[in-house]
Amino acid sequence: MKIWVRYLATLYDLMGTMRDVLEVPDGSTVMDLIKAIDEKYGGRLSREILDGGRLKDEYNILVNGRAIDYLAGLGTRLKDGDEVVFLPPVGGGL
Amino acid sequence: MAVFRVARIDLHTEKVTEEVYKDDVLKKFLGGRGLGSYLALKEIPKGIDPLSPSNRLYIFAGPLSAMANLSTSRVTVVTKSPLTGSLTHSNAGGNFAYWLRKSGYDGLIIEGAAEDPVYIVVKDGDVAIKPAKHLWGKWTGATIKALLRENGFPEEEKAAGAAVIGPAGENLVKIAGIRMSDYERFAGRGGVGAVMGSKKLKGILVWGTRDLLKDVKDRAKFIAESTKLAQRLMSGPTAKALHIYGTNLLTAVINSLGAYPVRNFETGHAEEADKLTGEYIKKNYVVETHACMMCPIACTQHVMVKSGPYKFVGKAKYEYENTWALGANVGLFDPEADLRLQKLANELGFDTISLGNTLAAAVELAKKGKLKLDVDWGDAGALADLVIRTANRSDIGDDLAEGDYRLSLKYGDPSVFRGSRGQGLPAYDPRALKGFALSYFTANRGGDHLEAYSPTWEVLGVPEKVDPLCETPECIEKQARIVIYAQHLMALTDSVTYCKFATLDHEGIFEKDLAYLFNLAYDWDVTPEDMLAIGERIFNVERLFHVKEGKWVKDELNPHFRNPIPTGPAKGHSAAKMFDEGIKIYYKLRGWVDGKPTYDVLKRLGLEEFQYLL
User: Fold this and answer.
1) What angle do helix axes B511-522 and B219-234 make, rounded to 10 degrees?
2) Could you tell me how far CA B213 lies from the centroid of its own chain?
3) pLDDT at res. A91
4) Lowest mean pLDDT among B33-42, B237-246, B549-558
5) How far apart are the first and last CA of chain B?
6) CA B266, B272, B273 angle in degrees (round to 5)?
């Protein structure tokens, strides 16, 4: 299935692109998607955002606009056409 | 002991008097927004026209402004707003607060009105009022240069502090702001620029050599301790990200959450917003990163558009709010056209948020056939033309100059006004970040995201994480409680003064640090709870101004946000439940009845002198 991916702010710098599309097997989770991204980019993403298999506190991931904290964390199951956004710390709107 | 020196300047009589506020008042209200609101409530007569000479402008730094490298060079302007008809406060960074305090004064109160245009110069305690007829009509950047040049400074904004208006303020445009040095900083909201214009005051220049640490008990310790706090602040992840991208790193984030208002809040998501993101603009247009005086974060991004139909001369300061207001909210997604509109708005002296709200309301009225105007969403040329007409109040611009609220009433469709208390909303849809359903519509100055900034807890988890879409009784109660806490903390930031960006990380500066700094600097013995009580006192004083005016007392949800958001990640969500149920809890927690403080609250906060208003 096809997953639409976005890397924002410092992760955009790290990955060199803002938008990405990945093909992953049906039933994949967010963690599976991170592994697929790692295969494509030589492990860059997980080295930055994971610590011992868990998401570092300062990062967040959105699946269709919802933070995975309110879904099933890195085990959140994806479906075809989902948009996954990798967010670094952000703030400020003055 | 803290001492706060104010110059009260009457532009009619040209009389200048010095006033000194000491611990008894400062421990209750601090400076900035707090002291300004307290004096405004006491002094501004009920029912006056905000553009009459009876109105006053309180331009105040705070008792810790520019004393520590903690983003402390901020100044607050308090006045009766010509846009909303009640109290407003508007805050700016840059270097004005620093140079104001160096000039020998911590605040200026401007009252009366001059016959002919003037500007004020404050140099090492001397106040001079000089003719400004030759500057009337000039754009803001040129005005600052002229003030510097005529007073013996190099034409660089870092050389002294300047606060000026452009044609919008001169022409009493109710969405005009005050531009501050250094560079393109604005006390934008509430039409404060029009109040300055009504006093025929084109600008203020401040400079001096005062030792700002003179009253500090132990200078070396204060510097060492505040430096430690600055280092902690800079270790926070949000501070670092803000330094790299500036505020506009939010466009992609807020759009991803479905909270990015598009075409006058029609929906909360735009597929075509990629080129308005901080990531795209950084790569293509940012030429330098800049900092306000005494700020370790340095979030400001300066841009240039060097070629093509939207090129402009020099650099512009650009922000998330401006990019949204003059971009997605008017259906414009061309970054070069957007940045040029921002530059134009800054030079003419507008509040960019309300300018975007007003243009969006005009386009919606035109699309509905209620306003005869040949303009469409995203029409960059027509929008730029309208901006200039609004600044000059020429033909239809005369109606736009009244702001989005009055425009919508005049053309018979109040539903196109998307704001509260007469002021339009900033760049977050309260249906997708539901903390705003409470914070926007309880904000004293109206249309406001800075009296309680809900992404702090809904996105960043500070002080604790709250799901932005959750509407369970527990979530609603939590939102009401955190909104109140944030309203008190933000009243402190505007009164201490320091920047709200120092409150976005757990490593930031909060009530505990403030109590520590005040005790250290002035030998006070305040607790963190005392600090928050000051915030609560300030918030209640502002509300009492509405009570005095009999205006905007009860908090109301703008009806548009009862409709579900039609597209994007937050599709189907509305702000109705959070507001309707949350406001009851909010009033209960505050001890208010229908938006009005009670005697018990005034007594608890030591505000009995205002009980006659109840």
Assistant:
1) 160
2) 27
3) 52
4) B237-246
5) 34
6) 85
| Closest in B238, B274, B470 to A91, CB measured | B238
* Contact (CB, 8 A) for B540 and B605: yes
Interface touch B279/A12, C-beta < 8 Å = yes
Is domain A2-87 classified as CATH 3.40.50.300? no
Smallest CA-to-CA distance from B543 within B29, B30, B38 is with B38
Shared domain for B162 and B274, answered yes or no, is no
State the CATH number of the domain containing residue B441: 1.10.599.10
Q: Is residue B237 part of a domain?
A: no
- Burial (CB count within 10 angstroms: exposed 0-12, middle 13-18, buried 19+), residue A16: exposed
Whether residue B216 is contained in a domain is answered as: no
Asked whether the beta carbons of B496 and B32 are under 8 A apart, the reply is yes
- pLDDT at residue B123 in the model: 98
- Distance in angstroms (rounded) separating the CA atoms of residues B110 and B295: 28
| Both tokens assigned to B83 | 């846009």
pLDDT of residue A93 exceeding 70, the answer is no
Residue-wise pLDDT tens digits, B436-457? 999 999 999 999 999 999 999 9
Taking only residues 453 to 482 of chain B, the set having a beta carbon closer than 8 angstroms to any beta carbon of chain A reads 453, 455-456, 459-460, 465, 467, 469-470
User: Do A93 and B242 make contact, defined as CB atoms within 8 angstroms?
Assistant: no
Nearest CB to B568: which of A8, A65, A91? A65
Residue B141 lies in a domain: yes
The neighbour count for residue A77, using CB atoms within 10 Å, is 14
Q: What is the ipTM of this complex?
A: 0.93
Question: Which of these three, B405, B424, B443, is where a domain ends?
Answer: B424
Q: Which residues contact B154 (CB under 8 A, 6 or more apart)?
A: B148
Task: Quote the number of domains for chain B.
Answer: 3
Q: How far apart are alpha carbons B249 and B269 in whole angstroms?
A: 16
> Looking at A82-91, B422-431, B518-527, which range is the least confident one?
A82-91
Q: How many residues does chain A have?
A: 94
Q: Show me where the domains of chain A are located.
A: 2-87
Minimal-distance CA residue of chain A relative to B351 = A94
Domain that holds residue B403: 248-424
Q: Which residue of B has its CA nearest to A56?
A: B237
Pairing label, strands B126-131, B118-123: antiparallel
Residue B402 sits in the same domain as residue B443: no
> In chain B, which among 279-338 make CB contacts under 8 A with chain A?
279-280, 299, 319-321
